[in-house]
Amino acid sequence: MSTGELTMHASRTARWARPLAALVIAAALLATPYYFAPFRVFQLTMVLLYAVVLAGLNLLVGYGGQISLGHGAFFAVGAYTAAVMLDRFTIGHLATLPVAAAGCFLLGLGFGVPALRLRGLYLALVTLAFAVFLPPLLKRFEHVTGGSMGLTVPKPQPPSWTGLAEDQWLYFLTLTVAAVTLLVVRNLLRSRVGRALLAIRENESAAEVMGVRLSFHKALAFAWSAMFAGVAGCLYTWVIGFVSPDSFSINLSITLLAGLVVGGLASVYGPLLGAAFVMYVPNLAQDISPAAPGVVFGLLIIVVMYLAPTGLAGLAARARQGVRRCVEHLRDTRRRPEPASPVEQTGPPQPEPQPLTAPPTIGKG
Prior knowledge:
This protein is mainly α. The protein has one domain. The protein has helices at 3-35, 38-61, 71-88, 93-111, 121-140, 142-145, 166-189, 192-202, 204-209, 214-240, 250-263, 270-288, 293-307, 311-335, 342-346; strands spanning 151-152, 242-243. Helix 1 packs antiparallel against helix 7 (166-189). The longest helix is centred in the N-terminal third of the chain and has 33 residues, at 3-35. The model has no long low-confidence stretch (mean pLDDT 83). Residues 330-365 are annotated as: Disordered.
């Protein structure tokens, strides 16, 4: 095969590899609830749910360069918004989703004001304070939030024409919202807003010189991130059917941030990998050591970060680059001409040179 044919074949393969992989993943996600037990379907639904909140957190931390330890609070606001609406009013579940998203967007926009003057650890401390005082605040308004007892609300039931069970219906609802969320985040990062956030993360002074409005984009990053956390909280109410202040402690915010770092900051697949880590690793730690699951969970985080400093997504990217380099090396080896044989290098055998002899001497006389 010639070099041109190899190049055309490689470009054709690269062009079709990504759409084919996306098609296979989509088919696997759609077929999943039909081949797993209800509990496994519930776990996968929670993974998709956490992927939504981590996608918003990645927008703020991974691409915006701002640290937040209070996203569990935005998650709780979205969950309680949906729960109170379902408990107090006779409305459908789908009507709670835009209300939770809009409410958390406005809350994040207002909360983004401290981000205009704070950064780094100081900003993290402010967001941490928000996550600390929200659960006691929810307990104070018992007539609305149910206090320490929480609220129990009905789960969305599948339409009869679908023929789906409750867990399957919840899975497909969460999958749809997660797919839309990831698509919105992807398009947002490719827009002017995403480029401005990257510029702010790299160098605020240089970004301001280039005409980027720091205050506007910082507040907007908080608003978008809080909105996705509120959407995930609304899904949490649908899936669990129960909310209480103890479900949204400070541990939730820390676990979400740890899951994002483990999954991979500023990565498209980081939220998905981090969501799987948040869902399955605590259960694994509980199985290993029921007496001290927190210790096992912390050790697992240390091990993962030691083996993959850039997160699981970075580890997968390095593996993919290694495979690509191997393929390119094999391709170059095929293109390289074979070494010439010894006969071709030296040519036909030459006759051995004859030794020089002195001319015959002619005697006198």
